[in-house]
């Protein structure tokens, strides 16, 4: 456990002009706040204006660069005061119309996109720093940037469109965005005046230098009136007894680098297995997003568990392969400073996908030395990593690069190749700081998906063979994140804006020959479907026929997060109040295609869609006594789901939905070094935008009922955290979760399945014991019970693939006998029902792995890892459904389908620190 308090405390003065200037950082990042209000179309307006005006109006609203610039112009104009409030927007709109004409007549201008990007950066810097020039120079800057923005708009006009109508449209939209910026500036000033006007005085620093968290609330000045203290930074980096007095629930925790670096890890997603009860596995090639299990859920590829990196959501809405797609292959475990997890739905800052919980992964901003690591291992596994940081100007530059190759034990090797990189620049100025982080990853792979058990039993294929060796995929992810934080004498402000571009091209075949796409006569595919001259099935010949489908997905995700926490008193009670706002927009192009050997033969559905959400929230925490704390939160989530284009016209449409979710928490104690928790609240999960608007089934052509946009979830938890025994922290949680309907968009079929309402409850018992400073044991046990709440005749009420028991335990040691480190780790995933009547169940999975390393000196270390030490033949994951092999009836056969765990394997790493 490490709690870091990172600068001096000061007595609270009255609000100074300097503090007010710093707070204007809110204005820059707040430019995304009203994004979602401009994206919806007004049907009434569309009746009185033509499509050219409509296209022009929407073009500035479809790019984050244009939106940020236009709103920044409005904020800058408001900061300039006087006539500039209306002069700068009018100059921008006028010159932009000239640029639009230049773009429409196709005048060649170099570096247009570069200048537009420069305008985004410079204007926001001007706003952040409140930089002003002379009136004429301000106008010159605005005119320059306006011309290039208009030029970009003009280039998008179609040859048949009216230039006047199109120009009028984008000029009107621009003026609206300018007005939004002016409004934001005015509202923020009012909000600051209101909130700061209610501040109370802070405790003097000298009284608190050596105070404990408990003592801090008890120290009083001579007047006898309680004073408040705000720490500039508090960061929990390990599990330890200091979670007493900090945690809001028994299922909240932190994992630091010390817990990660001594664990054997086969793939990046396994860092999430440090969360008690979480299992990460794989049913396909290494480049595909992992499967997750937690709290009675088969989370598929991430649905109902919110994963974030530096606060940026990783879960992807309306993804081609499933709602909530969570690809964590871009993670670099060595850079993780801390992983903060919060289970259940009683946290106001978490919304969509967080019904079972959330995790926020934070990277280091500075490394103590340059790290160079090379790893080689079984099945052509190679990995190279370089990571370093250095002072640059008044800040710090962090950079890292990674290359990974893995073939795996499969007959058709994965040939997985990943390039991964990170670049971060950060600065800290005492009580405030900022950082900009860029990440990029690109990978491609071949896949051996799950296989039918009967194919293995009949000797058609081997355990590591593929029934369709042409499966595989490629992906890429590029992101840019900017964050700013300020630690005032009675407040904390955090702002963050992000943009993510991600692409996936995925090819899968789970039913083999059940549909066979265009080929219904297996004899006509002899020699092509895998039947050799002796009529024996040979997977190597399977290259054109079968049920393979493609799932391309290309999207831009942009968003804003802001929170402002005020520390004050209500009467004599210490209080902490947080106001927050989250805005997110996804512009998505995806499809479900019919393919043979990754060659497209048809399209089942193809869509362009927008998903926009705005989520304000508020939370108040009260410390009533030294043994009673409460929290009360309220969150609103408003969504817009718009299928803008579709190959099936009837499936286009636009829908809105919103939910208010209250949250509550109570902490009692500590008594005998034990705290007790009671938490509860309402949450939700969103459905795929395509399922929400689908009226015609893409496969059958039948009419279907549209799915509900948002589905309510209800949860509660009772727990305890005990640190009575020295070095041991134990947490016990009894939890419950109801879902109104387990809506699921099935990307493999292009349809929505709305299952029955369900109920889950369970128990989690987590233990973390450090008898010495060099040895740690951990043991986590989770049990859960999942059932559908309403019974259907002739059907059971078991929830398929709901995990029932998970056990994870291990030990880590370091600096033993002069430099040895490592430890073993055991993971157990219990049997699960695979169908509603529980007549088919999966086998359990047991994996034992270990690491042993030696630190030769401060510069050089070696480590060896061994995975699946018992060489068990367990399934990594199991399903039960209908598929068809060559020679079987057209109706196919219901069977177990599984993906095997990898056999025993080894990896050896060399690490050099410079």
Automatic annotation (TrEMBL):
Keywords: Cell outer membrane, Ion transport, Iron, Iron transport, Membrane, Receptor, TonB box, Transmembrane, Transmembrane beta strand, Transmembrane helix, Transport. The chain crosses the membrane at residues 24-41, 61-78, 85-105, 135-152, 164-194. The keyword 4Fe-4S does not apply. It is found in: Cell outer membrane. It holds the Pfam family TonB_dep_Rec_b-barrel. Residues 254-355 form the TonB-dependent receptor plug domain. GO terms for biological process: iron ion transport. Residues 419-868 form the TonB-dependent receptor-like beta-barrel domain. It is a multi-pass membrane protein. GO terms for cellular component: cell outer membrane. InterPro entries: Beta-barrel_TonB (IPR000531), Beta-barrel_TonB_sf (IPR036942), HupE_UreJ (IPR007038), Plug_dom (IPR012910), Plug_dom_sf (IPR037066), TonB-dep_rcpt-like (IPR039426). Belongs to the TonB-dependent receptor family. This is Hydrogenase/urease accessory protein HupE. It comes from Nitrosomonas oligotropha. The lineage of its organism: Bacteria, Pseudomonadati, Pseudomonadota, Betaproteobacteria, Nitrosomonadales.
